[in-house]
Amino acid sequence: MEKSQWPYENRAGCVTRLQADVLVLGGGVAGCMAAAQAARRGQSVILVEKGAAKRSGAGGSGCDHWESAATNPCSTVSPEALLKAMMDDNDGYNNAISHYIECREGWDALLDIERMGGKIRDTEDEFKGAAFRDEKTKLMFAYDYKSRVTLRIWGATFKPAMAAACRKLGVRVFDRVMATTLLTEGGRQGGRCVGAAGFHTRTGEFFVFSAKAVIMAMSRPARVWLFSSGHPGLCEFRPLQCAGDGHAMGWRAGAEFNMMEKSVQAEFSAAGRSFPPYSTGNNHNTWYAASLIDAAGRKIPYADRDGRLLKTVEERYLPAPGQDFFLKGGAVTQAKYEFEGPETLPYEELKKQGYRLAFYADLSDLPELERKVIWGMMVGQEGKTQVPVYQNFTEAGFDPRRHVLQCYGTGWQSAQFLPKERQLFGLPGGFMNDWDLMTNLPGLFVAGDALFASDCYGHAAATGSYAGRKAAAYARKNQRLPLCEEQIEAEKRRVYAPLSADPREGVSWKELNEAIAKAMQNYCGEQKRDELLLSGVELLERYEREVIPKAFAANPHELTRLLEVFDILTVAQVILQACLSRRQSCEKLEFYRPDGDGAEPAPFICLRQEGGRVLRRQVPLDYAGDVKENYEKHNRDYIEEKEAAL
Ligand SMILES: Cc1cc2nc3c(=O)[nH]c(=O)nc-3n(C[C@H](O)[C@H](O)[C@H](O)COP(=O)(O)OP(=O)(O)OC[C@H]3O[C@@H](n4cnc5c(N)ncnc54)[C@H](O)[C@@H]3O)c2cc1C
User: Fold this and answer.
1) 566 in ligand 1 pocket by Cβ < 6 Å?
2) 197 within 8 A of 494, measured Cβ to Cβ
3) What are 183's strand-pairing partners?
4) Which domain holds residue 398?
5) Model pTM greater than 0.85?
6) Is the CB of 67 inside a 6 Å radius of any atom of ligand 1?
């Protein structure tokens, strides 16, 4: 590495050692909340983040709705009813513990973010008098205006406030450090987690962190089936940095995983083949309940969950007769209904009825405040929409009172994905957890999108805070253990090896990612058969044996990307093992086995590694037990704290 070619100091090989009571890996939503919570409980805390905590992660640039505010003062839905809907919607293949924490503490976490400086109320009375606003609290609701369980929030203000709060609380934040391995007691797979190591993504400096408790908050894997070397940043919905490093580190250390066999057919915003999320006209999520028109200007009807056509705009925001509540424009709602509403009729039905492409979102016929809350609040706060979509489109002259915006629906005008092009989207597999959000590795806690069947900002914030509390309690009770020097040395060798590989002979991160994605499409597509899966196992083993030793990186940036792809390879191997373990098709896991034995689908299948062998066990879907009772048993201190604060 020549100094003239690289703008940062070259510190590859230099080692810095640090100690904390609680070490948090990943400074996204969950990680920041966890770090703040542990620091408030008197623990010394280090937060390690691959990007910059101020804006990193899926929620770094924004978020427009908060789904889990069951206990907000206007909600009509209890945490238990909300959890039941989430569980029923997935036939039980969901994380009852983490989602109950979300339902029970989501509102507490949001109030915490408000205290940190995030904006959650219409304090300027911009939307005074709107049907979705509560005049007393100035809270604003989304989608279902009756249940008032989902809030509209100014999420672009959240991450900077959270990162600043962490620093104020004395958390030592290490930005641009990529964690690469967990350190375990005696270097043993399955041993207590005693720290982590990683390197600086600009200088290459190596970091060794020792801690009494560690929190894993590095989100979920991506780019396992989908990769576009031309659009690496648009390969998937979540940011490039979130590639599954945490899952791979956990697997190598012997942590247990659940539901890793689940994948879904790729959707919008994948593989660089569709427009960036929320930048085109549509009528769900951020854009709910925009009107849609066809090429002839004919209005496309809204329908409720039972397929009943709605006559007024107001009805779009109300549950169907007999339905208690719905979430996210109907994407999660009360379980068991036939119609995938309530956005519109299915495209095939619209085609039959003579509606003509292209379709457009038409905000002009909405009441003024409904229009303004979509274009200007939701579009502007959601994901990365603030500058690229809201600001740029506005500057280019887009006026939602007069103009319509074209829709590019998946399957009719946007990318049509093949069944073998898959993603870990929605509620995919991840770390298995107990009621303390601890993994099977003592001292290793987990929060946010790293948990199995996890999703959403409120879930990440609530589980982050919870894991911070539990890790702090663990650190108070347990001694620091010495680190295993052989384990550290082996990791240093692994991390730096690609810097000395020969670029003329070697393979780059993009080539390797492309190869893994193709292998997974070919051998672990929609249909799971032993012959195919075993061919995949063999091919990926070959990549591990023959390609990884030749992979090269010219600088710390390329090294970061390459080590991520090594982790993607590990995750792909775990997925293949999980698929081999499930013998029957399971609709809710979108898992199809033509060579299955036709029996009832198995409950949860959990996997871990011990001495290179894969160990499997089945876990009942209701392993969380009575959620209210168990939550209250495990959180007496928190409940008392809250009562004392009233
Ligand atoms: C475009 C978009 C819009 C969304 N909108 C909403 C919404 O409106 N409402 C909602 O509820 N949810 C929304 N979500 C989902 C929500 O943002 C996520 O569920 C949430 O951010 C998960 O939090 P997390 O902390 O688990 O992961 P993240 O916030 O993604 O944080 C993970 C962090 O780990 C870091 N990291 C990864 N690997 C390493 C490593 N090796 N070393 C160190 N650090 C590492 C990453 O850089 C990142 O900062 C949206 C997501 C996207 C992508």
Assistant:
1) no
2) no
3) 195
4) 285-406
5) yes
6) yes
